[in-house]
Each structure stands twice: as structure tokens, then as C-alpha cells.
Design a protein that fits this description.
single chain; about 130 residues; alpha/beta
């Protein structure tokens, strides 16, 4: 059988996030966001991230403020059908969550302990 793409040879996809504040980031993704741990080693922790994984690893550069796109051009996106409840949960855990409404949907931005941008996203309301 001839393969035509790497996705045919790949069982799972993932993102590796290199962090400076490793322990704080692991706590954030495990306890604040509640992601399920699937692997834990000395210098890395992997979390279930939708159909793939998010690996938090030592060796990055943190920022006390949200990183600019030149520092980190990626966003970790969490889609939700219940934006209000998701925002309420995150704010109850002490996160500063800023929501913005667009014609294509609503996003609510927050950062992890290294200043990496994360977002909740909900779809646009049909007929709105």
C-alpha cells in the first residue's frame, strides 16, 4: 500500500510547549484547566488535548505578561459550546479572561504562567 501523506502514517498529533516556569505551567494545565495527564516524566508532562496531546516541557522562555506574536506566534485554542460557563470557571480560578465577539464567533483570551496565549472559542450564533 502506497502512502500519500504523513497523516496516513501518524496515529496521533501533538503540540510541544517549551516552558521556563515548568512546574507552574504543569499545575496550570493540570489543575486550573483540568487537562488529563497521559504521561509524566522528570522534564515533561503530556496532557490529553482534544484528539491529540499537549506536551509541556522544560526549556522555554517565560514572560510575566502575555507574549507578543513575535515571541510566540501560536495560540492554544479550546473550543466550547458554553462560553459563559467556561469563562466563569476560569475567572473563579483567578484568571483574567477577556472576551471578544466577532461575526465568526466569540473568543475569550487568557495566558498561562509563561505568558503563552490561550483562548476559548465558541461558534457564531446562527442567524445572529
Amino acid at each position: 500500500m502506497k502512502h500519500h501523506s504523513i497523516s496516513e502514517l501518524t496515529a496521533e498529533f501533538g503540540v510541544i510547549l517549551f516552558t521556563e516556569n515548568f512546574e507552574a505551567c504543569v499545575q496550570f494545565y493540570e489543575h486550573t484547566l483540568g487537562l488529563q495527564v497521559i504521561e509524566r516524566a522528570q522534564d515533561l508532562v503530556s496532557f490529553r488535548f482534544g484528539g491529540g496531546y499537549l506536551m509541556v516541557e522544560r526549556g522555554g522562555h517565560g514572560s510575566t505578561a502575555q507574549k507578543a506574536r513575535t515571541q510566540n506566534p501560536c495560540v492554544l485554542r479550546f473550543n466550547t459550546d458554553d462560553m459563559d460557563t467556561a469563562i466563569e470557571l476560569l475567572r473563579a480560578k483567578g484568571l483574567d479572561v477577556k472576551a471578544q465577539v466577532f461575526d465568526w464567533g466569540t473568543i475569550a483570551a487568557f495566558t498561562d504562567p509563561d505568558g503563552n496565549l490561550c483562548e476559548l472559542k465558541s461558534p457564531a450564533l446562527v442567524g445572529a
